[in-house]
């Protein structure tokens, strides 16, 4: 006898609630019973919609990645150039109000690195999403290899600075380093020729 089909709309609602719960409570002790109790559903309901716990973890990773990219892509799409976009992304991601979400992001990122075959989809897209946007912001006239190299540096530096900030809470030191890095992305000021005498 076949099991009842999964209601995908209900699954999406549950997944958002599970991600919210995980952002608040952390990732290390995630298990069916406390999640089900917090959401007001049975563990059977969660198993029906997500399958094994590993599948739920993978779904959490994917939805968290989608949320973070959606929040930053809105900023990226509004900016005219790479330097302005990178600054806007740093401002958004380093906002203390988003700290819990990014702590979870780094926790689950670490989990994915420990099981790369299981979380291959997440690992493949977690850089690729930003990469496309940051390459495009450099304009069609930029050499593709140079654009990719620069985008890679922006992603790696912002993530490294954010990890440092979350680990140490040293806002002044990290912000100072961020400002120094972001300044390197600014286009050079146009040179002014001295006025010629008559």
Write a structural description.
Residues 8-68 form the HTH tetR-type domain. Keywords: DNA-binding. This is TetR family transcriptional regulator. This protein is mostly helical and 198 residues long. It has one domain (8-184): Orthogonal Bundle (Tetracycline Repressor, domain 2). Helix content is 73%, strand content 0%. It has helices at residues 8-25, 32-39, 43-50, 53-78, 82-93, 99-114, 120-136, 144-168, 171-184. The protein starts with 7 loop residues before the first helix and ends in a 14-residue tail after the last helix.
Brief descriptors of the model:
single chain; 198 residues; mainly alpha; Tetracycline Repressor, domain 2; 73% helix; transcription cis-regulatory region binding; Tet_transcr_reg_TetR-rel_C_sf; DNA-binding
